[in-house]
Each structure stands twice: as structure tokens, then as C-alpha cells.
Amino acid sequence: MKLQNLLRDVSYTGGALPEFEITGITADSRKAGPGVVFVCIPGERADGHDFAASAAAAGSPAVLALRDTGAPVPHILVKDTRLAYALCCANFFGRPAERLRMVGVTGTNGKTTTTTLLKEILEYNGHKSGLIGTIVNMAGGKTLPSHLTTPEPYEFQQLLKTIADEGCEFAVMEVSSHALAQERVAGCHFEAAVFTNLTQDHLDFHKTMENYLEAKEKLFSMCDLGIVNVDDDYAPEIIRTAKCKTVTYSARYMNADYTARNIKLKNDGVEYEMVGNALIGRVSVPIPGAFSVYNTLAAAAAAVSLGIPFKQVLEALHQVKGVKGRIEVVPTGRNFTVIIDYAHTPDALEKILKSIRGFAKGRVVALFGCGGDRDKTKRPIMGMVAGRGADFCIVTSDNPRTEDPQAIIDDILPGMDGPAPYVVVPNRREAIAYALKNAQKDDIVLLAGKGHEDYQIIGREKHHFDEREVVAEILRCLPVHGEE
Ligand SMILES: CC(=O)N[C@H]1[C@@H](OP(=O)(O)OP(=O)(O)OC[C@H]2O[C@@H](n3ccc(=O)[nH]c3=O)[C@H](O)[C@@H]2O)O[C@H](CO)[C@@H](O)[C@@H]1O[C@H](C)C(=O)N[C@@H](C)C(=O)N[C@H](CCC(=O)O)C(=O)O
Ligand SMILES: Nc1ncnc2c1ncn2[C@@H]1O[C@H](COP(=O)(O)OP(=O)(O)OP(=O)(O)O)[C@@H](O)[C@H]1O
Ligand SMILES: N[C@H](CCC[C@H](N)C(=O)O)C(=O)O
Ligand SMILES: [Mg+2]
């Protein structure tokens, strides 16, 4: 590709650029080489400008930067290197988003579930769809591993190209606030975008809820239609700042465009009547929890807006299966129930506990921790919601990453002002063993925070850790007693 084509629609200075062929683009000097343009990104830990000289030494023919770096190669100067990087990556892969009908879902909780439901609705109705998100990326028949909820620009555009090349009509994706703040999806236009909710998380990165909201708002200046959960406190701001048309959904207000009535929350799913598009239909999905009402409303509103007939959408919802690690029941063969869930924010933990309380016949036992190297301010709040929402808590580790597990727990405990007694068992495997050994008849034991993850990150190392396997291993050695 010619350098000029890589820079299509990128505003830059730095003088006339020589015409040359480029073979790649990277923001990581360790991947630089002949023909590969190096983009300098100032980060939290390092500044890419400091690596321009080594990229040039490795053979990079040009650097894209905010300022002169002194590297002996032509400089393409821009005001925002993350933005320029995203646009260049789109150009490099031939702007694959233009061959796809793009749908983005943003919000603190519910993105993975909503995108998965929407993909299933579209596919059920014969529309081949790619999926980009936390658990996995899918391109037609290909299943590709996911490392971030929203990939970085190079991997993202490469993935979109694969999705388009595989003959998909739609790309349904999670758009994280990190991605929006870092312009990872710049250059893409979305036919529809969903706002699920905004509650506390990621303040380590965004610092304030205002910045977090501002990041989410960006998506609604990049789409034709916004689909907004008006039961969320931040919905008015999303609608006020949106540069697109909006439709609304709500489980509370019957004047929203899509609503739910006669809601029945059961231990094996939810049922309700959806009212939307001047039609009414029965919804039944095998995913329990009040938030299943929201996630199905969001997916249905998006699908109808994309042209799938209402009746077909509801028919598709009847077929959906659950999402891995989202309120997933683990078979135990005992007289208590174990549920794995990805609740790792205060709001998600509060809602899952409330949902479980709604169908629990016995005690609700919450086993949880908080991720290391992530928002510290959410830790005591998670302690508070667990202490108030469960009958018994087991405070343990999530992914401690580079933090001391006990220090994370020490941040959680001051929030635990609720009536629930608790124990602290820092090792998660031992904590699960404690939970299972002490489980009583009809208890529901919630293993919160790790959901689909099959690893635990301790230090910088990822250790295999699949809670389904851990539960099975512990139960194998645990005598059955007191069961009827
Ligand atoms: C908090 C966050 O988003 N961090 C991202 C950020 O890292 P950073 O600012 O620390 O980058 P840095 O290490 O200082 O490096 C700056 C630049 O120097 C370059 N560099 C660095 C070293 C070197 O030798 N040579 C070199 O060129 C780096 O490639 C980079 O371009 O910029 C990096 C480069 O773009 C990202 O890889 C990194 O994401 C990391 C992997 C991450 O874990 N992000 C998570 C928190 C994330 O994005 N999560 C969201 C949200 C999930 C959710 O909603 O739950 C997601 O979408 O997954
Ligand atoms: N609509 C919702 N509102 C509040 N909580 C929800 C909702 N949907 C799911 N949850 C809770 O949040 C957890 C994570 O759900 P999901 O994976 O769908 O969200 P996500 O936004 O993709 O999360 P992440 O930001 O980590 O990718 C679930 O396991 C459940 O406990
Ligand atoms: N995408 C989220 C996932 C958190 C999952 C939880 N298990 C944790 O490690 O905190 C993050 O990186 O903040
Ligand atoms: Mg997700």
C-alpha cells in the first residue's frame, strides 16, 4: 500500500511526504521493521515517542507522532496519534466496516449478554453476523480468542476484515469505555448503538463518572440510531448529547418505545410481555435475573430497528441459550445450587444478589473478591452490597494481578456494614472449598466475578483456573451428608 493511501482522511503536517510502499503499521516498537510505519502513543506507563529511534533503527520508514522525535526518518505529525492510528488501521485493512452493518453496545454491564443475544436473533433470522467482545470473537465459522473487550485498532480492523471476508452482513460488538476514550473504533460508523447502563467501574482509568459518561457518549455521535435504556439515571444525558435519532426501552415506563409488562422472574429464566413497535408478544428466555429483561429488551429493540420483524425477534429469543459465566448454574448433584456469574461491579453484584434472592429457597452465599490493578474505590462498595444482599459472604481473591491479595481484601472489608456474617479466605480455590463444605440444603452459592474466565492472574502470570472444574474437583472429594 502507498503511504498516501494509509493516510486517507488523516489530517497531518510535517511537510511533503515521499511516496513509498508500506507493508504495515504498528504502535509497538517491538513490532517495527522495514515497511512498517511506527505510531508514537503516549501511554500511562511509557511514551511511544521514546521508541521512535529504535523503530527507525529496526527499519521503520516513517513515524507518526505528536512532535519531532529526533528519529532520522520522515515524521507525519498529527494532533492525536491514537485517533490517527485507528484511521490508518482502517485504511490499511481496506475500511472493512464499510462492508458491514455495524452494531455497537456500550454500558457498564450487560454488553456481552446483549451482543450475544442480538447475534443469535440476527442469525436465527438468516443474517450472518460476526461478534466482537469479552469472551470470544466470531467471524462466520471462525472462533477467535479475545484479549480485550474491544480490541486495539490494528487487531480490531483486522478482525472486521475477517468478519467481512467470511461473508457476514453484520458485526455486533461490545464497545468499552476504554476503547471509546482511546479512539480504538474511530473511523467506524455504526448503524445502531445500544446504551445499557452506567454505574461505577473503571474509575482507576476515567477518574470521574463525568469522564466515564463522556466516553460512553462518544458512541452516540458515531451512529445513525441510539437505543437507550431510559431506566438508567444517565439516559437523559446520553439522549441530550446524542447526535443520532434515539429509541428507548424500559422495564418501568410504558411510554418508552420498547417496554416489558407482566414480568415473571423465575429460577430458570424470565417471562414477560414485550410491547414495542405497536405490537405485543410473549418473551421467554432461559436466563434468570431481572437484568435479563433489560438485555432482551435491548437486543430486541436493536433487532427490530435493524429490520427484523417483531414476531421473528421474539421467536428467536425463545431459542437462545445462556451466555457462559453469566448466571450459569454448575451441576452439583447435591441439595444446594452453585451459580457462576461475572458480576465484578457494585451494580452487577447488587443486582445478581437481588435476583438470586428472588428465587432462593435457602440462604444466599456470596463468594467474591475484586480485581487487582483496577478501580480501588469500587472495593468497599462491593463489600457493602454483598454484606447487605447475601446471608453469608466469603471474601476472597478475584484476579489480584500485581497487587497483594490481602491488601485488596483490606479495601473490601471496611464496606461490609451489612448484616451478613463473613469469612475471609484469600485463596480462591480454598474459598470455594469452604463454600461447598459448608453449604446447607437449599443454599445458593454464588461464585461472583470470574464468569467465563478459565484463568486467574496472579502477579503477571495467568494460571489455569476454571471454576466449573474447581467445583467438580472439590465435590468429588466431598462426602454427601445430610441429603434427603
Ligand atoms: C488502561 C489501558 O487501557 N491501557 C492501555 C494503554 O496502556 P498504557 O497507556 O499503559 O500503554 P504503555 O504501556 O504506557 O505504552 C504506550 C505506548 O508505547 C508503546 N511501547 C511501549 C513499550 C515499548 O517497548 N515500545 C513501545 O512502542 C506501546 O505499544 C504503546 O503504544 O495503551 C495500551 C496501548 O494502546 C493498551 O494496550 C493498554 O490496554 C491494556 C492491555 C489493558 O489491559 N486494557 C484494559 C483495562 C482495557 O482496555 N479494558 C477494556 C474494558 C473492559 C471492560 O469494560 O470491562 C477493554 O476494552 O478490554
Ligand atoms: N443489564 C444489566 N444490568 C446490570 N447488570 C447486568 C446486566 N446484564 C448482566 N449484568 C451483570 O453483569 C455481569 C456481566 O455481564 P456482561 O458480561 O453481559 O456485561 P459486560 O458489560 O459485557 O461486562 P464487561 O465490561 O466486563 O465486558 C453479569 O454476570 C451480571 O451479573
Ligand atoms: N474487563 C474487566 C474484567 C474484570 C473481570 C474481573 N474478573 C477482574 O479481574 O477484575 C476489567 O479488565 O476490568
Ligand atoms: Mg463484556
Automatic annotation (TrEMBL):
GO terms for biological process: cell division; cell wall organization; peptidoglycan biosynthetic process; regulation of cell shape. GO terms for molecular function: ATP binding; magnesium ion binding; UDP-N-acetylmuramoylalanyl-D-glutamate-2,6-diaminopimelate ligase activity. Its main location: cytoplasm. SUPFAM superfamilies: MurD-like peptide ligases, catalytic domain, MurD-like peptide ligases, peptide-binding domain, MurE/MurF N-terminal domain. Pathway: Cell wall biogenesis; peptidoglycan biosynthesis. It catalyses: UDP-N-acetyl-alpha-D-muramoyl-L-alanyl-D-glutamate + meso-2,6-diaminopimelate + ATP = UDP-N-acetyl-alpha-D-muramoyl-L-alanyl-gamma-D-glutamyl-meso-2,6-diaminopimelate + ADP + phosphate + H(+). Keywords: ATP-binding, Cell cycle, Cell division, Cell shape, Cell wall biogenesis/degradation, Cytoplasm, Ligase, Magnesium, Nucleotide-binding, Peptidoglycan synthesis. It is an enzyme of class 6 (ligase). UDP-N-acetyl-alpha-D-muramoyl-L-alanyl-D-glutamate binds at residues 29, 149-150, 176, 182, 184. Residues 21-69 form the Mur ligase N-terminal catalytic domain. NCBIfam families: murE, PRK00139.1-2, PRK00139.1-4. This is UDP-N-acetylmuramoyl-L-alanyl-D-glutamate--2,6-diaminopimelate ligase. The lineage of its organism: Bacteria, Bacillati, Bacillota, Clostridia, Eubacteriales. The gene is murE.
